[in-house]
Write a structure and sequence with these properties.
single chain; 295 residues; alpha+beta; four-stranded antiparallel beta sheet; 6 strands; globular
């Protein structure tokens, strides 16, 4: 490390900072790792050790040709700008009053973040192992509620997944891992609708009870975000032609990604269609973007 290294909020003690620098210089160059500093578990995210996957690079290269806004990739970044993006979004969520990890240290290659626990996906896995289907699916519904609250504040996560959400000791839901910024490549409502679609890929796939996706849908649309509902309909119309094809091979080797798309698209097509029959439930309000944050 060089003299560009800075402590973001002077949270780590001098001894912990020295130990961190030693680890960064001599330790394994893992993309994400954890260690104990000042008696607390911290997470180290290195942005300089992993090449961009070919599929991700291709997605970015083809973005100008994408026929629909929600298919666009987040703006491409180098190591330093990727860190700036994650810090910017981390700060936006915190300033909006939502729990996030604390930023303990940063430079132009590394972020060090406080530990957050429990991670929602870990809780879901534990409940599934113990056969607690009601509590398990209750968390999925709460995840949809948490995303609604974030969207209601004019925010967009970019890649919402239970592994990127956590539950505080007082029951509040928080978010981590802000590595995507679709709202910089498309309208905010489109990016938020994309968030909803991505989360329902997980909700529909992981739900133990058949009525859980509808409960989660109702939880998200409890405060009707009309613009998001309209953009979500556009996403589902785009994927709807895949339903017969994916359905035909659902039990004949369809992979997990295909199953997630099939389950979520089937469900959301029906749920949005039912909601359209009672438009008063979903067209009363627009989501207002947080001032100064909409791209």
């Amino acid at each position: 490390m060089d003299n560009e290294t800075t402590s973001e909020k002077d949270v780590l003690s001098p001894a912990a900072t020295a130990e961190l620098l030693r680890l960064l210089i001599t330790g394994e160059h893992q993309r994400v790792s954890s260690t104990v500093l000042d008696g607390h578990t911290v997470w180290i995210k290195r942005y300089d050790v992993e090449r961009q996957p070919v599929a991700q690079w291709l997605h970015g290269a083809l973005t100008p040709l994408m026929p629909a806004a929600f298919l666009r990739a987040s703006p491409s970044t180098n190591t330093a700008s990727a860190i700036e993006r994650e810090v910017r979004k981390l700060d936006a969520f915190r300033e909006a009053g939502l729990p996030t990890a604390k930023l303990l240290f940063r430079n132009d290659r590394v972020l060090v973040l406080s530990n957050v626990a429990p991670i929602a996906q870990s809780e879901l896995d534990m409940l599934a192992r113990h056969g607690e289907d009601g509590a398990h699916d209750g968390l999925l519904v709460q995840a949809a509620e948490a995303l609604r609250r974030a969207h209601g504040l004019g925010l967009c996560h970019g890649r919402p997944h239970p592994r990127d959400m956590f539950i505080t000791s007082d029951g509040r839901w928080g978010f981590v891992d802000f590595e995507e910024e679709p709202e910089a490549a498309m309208p905010l409502a489109t990016a938020q609708a994309r968030d909803v679609w991505l989360l329902f890929l997980q909700i529909c796939m992981q739900a133990k009870r058949p009525d859980t996706p509808q409960s989660a849908f109702d939880a998200y649309f409890a405060e009707p975000p009309r613009l998001v509902a309209e953009e979500l309909r556009r996403i589902i119309r785009f994927f709807a032609p895949l339903i017969p094809l994916l359905g035909a091979i659902e039990h004949w080797g369809l992979g997990s990604d295909g199953k997630r798309v099939l389950k979520a698209t089937r469900f959301l097509k029906t749920a949005l269609g039912n909601a359209a029959a009672t438009p008063a439930e979903m067209s009363q309000h627009d989501i207002k973007p947080k001032k100064g944050y909409e791209a």
